Amino acid sequence: MRTFDLAPLYRATVGFDRIADLMDRVLTGEAAQPGYPPYNIEKTAENAYRISIAVAGFSPDELTVETRDQTLHVAARKAPETVERVYLHRGIATRAFERRFALADHVKVTGAVHEHGMLHIDLVRETPEALKPRRIEIARATPAEAKVVEGAAA
Question: Whole-structure pTM over 0.90, yes or no?
């Protein structure tokens, strides 16, 4: 596989570090993750989302959910069993895992719930007022002001 060096991008740009990091992550193959555990991403409202991860066999104490650097990290570590068990068939995988989800700008985690073997993580996009589109009213000139402007142009 061919690799690309993005170091010149870092030297020639200011403020685009996040885009360069994203390109770096995509090109190095870090974005490819194993299929365990399975998960769903659903849109629950206009600016709300929910990530549901199948975590059968894990208790809430064995799960960690945290955000850092616009990335959501979900990890699970199974506590060692105190009772020795003999399985005839073991189909429920309780191996440790770590999943990462890149979050878009202004997306915040609002909560996480563990129920029925599923971990639900709720997200919301909160666009700051400064970035929302604003409508600028156009004032109309009064007839007296229009005559003054016409007289000045002549």
Answer: no
